[in-house]
Each structure stands twice: as C-alpha cells, then as structure tokens.
Amino acid sequence: YINLQTIKKQLNYLKRLYGLYNNVLKTMDKYYETIWKDFHIDQITNEIQEFQNKMKKLPKGLKTWPAYSELKKTLDNFNECLPLLELLINPAMQTRHWERIEKLANIHIPHTDPLLFSLKHVMTIPLMKSREEIEDIS
C-alpha cells in the first residue's frame, strides 16, 4: 500500500505541475496573438509573476523533473524580455524606430498594420541578443 500512496502523491504532483504548465502555454499563446496596440505590459508582467509564484509553491520534489525545468526556462526567458517589450510598446516608438529594428534584426515586422502587428512579430526579433541596440533605438 505504501507504493500506491507514493504513486497517488506523485500523480497529484504531476497534475499540479502539468496543469500549471498547460495554463502557462495557453496564456503565452494568447500573448503572442495579442495585437500590439492592445498589449498591456503591466497586466502581463503581473501574470508572469503570478505564474512564477505558483511555481515556487510547487512541491520541492518536482524541481528535478524536466517539465519543471522547461516551465521555469519558459517563464524566465519571457520575463527577461519584458523590460525591452516595455520600451518597444512606448507610444514614442515611431515607424523610423521599427525600421531600424527591422534592419538590425534583418527581418520584416508589419508595424504599419495595426490589425496585423502582434507580439509574435516582436518576438521574432532576437531581443536579448540585440538588447543594447534596441535600448538605443527605443
């Protein structure tokens, strides 16, 4: 019976971990589809912080699981981009700024089409690799 109790406990842990993991992935997908002009950085920052707090409350035994590490990496990487996203969402960002970023990253971003331009386009920019240049441009 001890093994059954252990298995039940592990299944409960996994349910909590994967429930949070799925919630994070769904939320991130929603962020990526968000039209840029509707992107609310404060709300997203708070939600990411809530996810990170929920992760910290998970049982310590889960911290060795690969899914935990993946989830932590996903949240940490996105959280690291938030200060740059805050700079880029600034209304002072003009077409010339976006054109410089496009040239820097060697990509096209539909920044002139407010109905198409979304976070997924911004996230194609190597934000962390180009951090200093983006800070200078914005």
From TrEMBL:
Pfam families: DHC_N2. This is Dynein heavy chain linker domain-containing protein. Coiled coil: none annotated. InterPro entries: DHC, Dynein_heavy_linker. It comes from the Eukaryota. GO terms for molecular function: dynein intermediate chain binding; dynein light intermediate chain binding; minus-end-directed microtubule motor activity. Residues 4-138 form the Dynein heavy chain linker domain. GO terms for cellular component: 9+2 motile cilium; outer dynein arm. GO terms for biological process: cilium movement involved in cell motility; outer dynein arm assembly.
